[in-house]
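Quiz preparation item.
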């Protein structure tokens, strides 16, 4: 497969062409199946995580290590951001020091796009530096959607006409929004099931369903979501949620693939019994595929190929 370097940043799913998305997924599976990855030796990446992470942080770090790049943890609380330095100036100084990429996780909506727009205001970066979204606010988590695509492609190959049901905290979930944007491009039909307090009626390309049994009737995949406690003000009705929306061995129809981006709130979104069964294994495969997906993405952004 030819690797193209036209991708300079990863802002969100919207900013990726369908062709680029397919190429990243295909390449991730090639690498998983033994293809030799490109060497990114001599490239330097800073991990700027304002929010906690296990999967995204370490799979980016693992991907960069496997590609031979050097990885540095930018400790946000010990950085000069705490002295009031502006984010654009921070990134520009990292470019001046010699970094090629910043991998950013933030609760601030639009931070990455705004930082890139500063360049248009003639505040030029010292040198080209890639900005990569590792999860931004409640709106976008593009690498999670890409790795979910890889996981679905691995199971079904052809996505056309698949039925996906997303269950849970859709309102606060950047994973749901990026997945809806991505998978609707591949003609996946998407139903969402959530209590009123987790609904977001502004989301396009989905059908809301009132209850899980109706939604699950034709489902090929059920994707549960983490309840985003840190983004919710007020009391969460866990008892009501567990009663009506917890996915269990009993209510998940046979042959339906179970996914969850992690971290899972055990016995809230999914019963422990189901999570620890054979049917829970896809969730760990999602984390596993995160490494190959991020390798494929980094090859494109930092790889320097023109093909
Ligand atoms: N899925 C996901 O983003 O997990 P982390 O928060 O652990 O990175």
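Solution:
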């Amino acid at each position: 497969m030819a690797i193209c370097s036209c991708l300079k940043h990863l802002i969100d799913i919207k900013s990726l062409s369908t062709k680029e998305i397919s190429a990243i997924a295909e390449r991730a599976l090639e690498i998983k199946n033994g293809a030799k990855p490109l060497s990114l030796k001599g490239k330097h990446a800073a991990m700027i995580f304002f929010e906690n992470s296990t999967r995204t942080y370490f799979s980016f770090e693992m991907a960069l290590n496997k590609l031979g790049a050097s990885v540095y943890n930018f400790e946000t609380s010990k950085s000069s951001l705490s002295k009031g330095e502006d984010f654009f100036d921070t990134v520009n100084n990292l470019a001046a020091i010699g970094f090629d990429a910043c991998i950013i996780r933030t609760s601030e909506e639009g931070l990455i796009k705004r930082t890139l727009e500063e360049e248009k205001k003639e505040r030029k970066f010292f040198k080209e530096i890639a900005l990569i979204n590792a999860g931004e606010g409640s709106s976008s988590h593009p690498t999670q959607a890409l790795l979910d695509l890889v996981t679905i492609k691995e199971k079904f190959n052809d996505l056309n006409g698949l039925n996906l049901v997303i269950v849970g905290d859709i309102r606060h979930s950047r994973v749901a929004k990026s997945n809806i944007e991505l998978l609707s491009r591949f003609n996946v039909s998407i139903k969402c099931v959530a209590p009123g307090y987790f609904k977001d009626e502004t989301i396009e390309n989905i059908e809301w369903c009132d209850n899980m049994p109706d939604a699950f009737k034709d489902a090929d995949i059920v994707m549960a979501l983490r309840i985003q406690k840190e983004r919710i003000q007020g009391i969460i009705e866990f008892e009501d949620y567990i009663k009506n929306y917890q996915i269990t061995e009993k209510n998940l129809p046979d042959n339906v693939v179970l996914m969850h981006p992690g971290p899972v709130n055990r016995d809230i979104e999914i019963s422990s019994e189901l999570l620890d069964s054979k049917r829970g294994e896809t969730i760990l495969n999602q984390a596993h595929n995160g490494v190959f997906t991020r390798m494929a993405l980094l090859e494109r952004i930092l790889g320097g190929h023109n093909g």
